[in-house]
UniProtKB/TrEMBL annotation:
InterPro entries: AAA+_ATPase, ABC_SmlMolc_Importer, ABC_transporter-like_ATP-bd, ABC_transporter-like_CS, Mo/tungstate-bd_C_term_dom, P-loop_NTPase, PotA-like, Transp-assoc_OB_typ2. It is an enzyme of class 7 (translocase). This is Spermidine/putrescine import ATP-binding protein PotA. One of its GO terms (cellular component) is ATP-binding cassette (ABC) transporter complex. It catalyses: ATP + H2O + polyamine-[polyamine-binding protein]Side 1 = ADP + phosphate + polyamineSide 2 + [polyamine-binding protein]Side 1. It comes from Paraburkholderia susongensis. Keywords: ATP-binding, Cell inner membrane, Cell membrane, Membrane, Nucleotide-binding, Translocase, Transport. GO terms for molecular function: ABC-type polyamine transporter activity; ATP binding; ATP hydrolysis activity. It comes from the Bacteria.
Amino acid sequence: MSSKLEAIGIAKRYGDSVALEPTDLAVQVGEFLTLLGPSGSGKTTLLQMISGLVAPSAGRIEIDGRDVTHVEPGKRGIGMVFQSYALFPHMSVWDNVAYGLRMRRKSREEVRAAVDDALAMVRMTDYAKRFPKELSGGQQQRIALARCFAYRPSVILLDEPLGALDKKLREHMQAEIRRLHKELGATFVYVTHDQDEALTLSDRICLMNQARIEQVGTPADLYDRPATRFAAGFIGHSNLLEGELDDTRGAGGEPILLAAGGRIPLPMSASVTPAMRHTLLVRPEAPRLVEPQSGFVDGTIADVVFFGSDTRVQLSMNDGSELTVRCERSLSPRVGDKVGLMWDPYRTTLLHA
Ligand SMILES: Nc1ncnc2c1ncn2[C@@H]1O[C@H](COP(=O)(O)OP(=O)(O)O)[C@@H](O)[C@H]1O
Ligand SMILES: [Mg+2]
């Protein structure tokens, strides 16, 4: 695999405040990479430095192995889509999409072919003669996408492009963006603060927190093997069980964590330090309900929440901590029931930070 795009030691400060610590990131050719993180974590700053709209305080940007740090935005071969569609209100849909191509001094025939193509791609051919104010928010965002795709940039940067749309339309547009990514074969760098959106869309996610990268990996990497407490908490629901190691190991030689009022076997490979507190991540889908006293930990069902496809059971553990467990509806758990919990230790993750 080769890198389409590389940020090398890229950093940004505004006076005394750090918008982005020195950061390295490589995006592969044709990849869909998402910058995910809470508001203010530096996502837009990183994206804008890739685009050239913001000048870095340090470091450099390479595209196709070429240093473009001092190349102006229009000459980087990049397309951009933002949350605000910024369509020209006095121009028809067709002219909005043609604008960038005309600026690039393409021939009439080339412009016509590219605009028709781009409108077809976002399924807006029938709206070519309308004006932006005659379109819904979702339709306007399609036009903004078409305008960007029309000149076929090999890198497309999208900053919360679906942020202004309601949930249903957002989900529909996520599927559209996936399809368009496949059709275009371009490299996408996408910004969102929405974990579900990131999990749905991305080949890889770059999780950001407090002006730096927390973890980079596939959606499954981040969900199954979060590197830090922050990563575990930001993606998916997390039960974090805190405790210390038991002096004696389990029957199979595995380390045992004393937490949630029970003895919890850890993966044999877990790197553990005696006399230190450890945090174990147990996703809600890992445990199964068993008879009291026959699992690793015991608790009482405090609440049962219906989620459509499954049920979330809230448990009050014997040491007072709380745990959320996903369970099949057929088990019909009831508030007040005493239950035990058991799971495959290899489905849990010991967190170090
Ligand atoms: N033009 C600017 N001047 C001063 N501070 C800025 C500017 N742009 C961004 N910042 C600060 O940099 C940090 C990162 O911002 P940003 O990259 O926009 O975060 P995100 O996109 O993840 O919400 C924030 O603390 C923000 O206030
Ligand atoms: Mg932002």
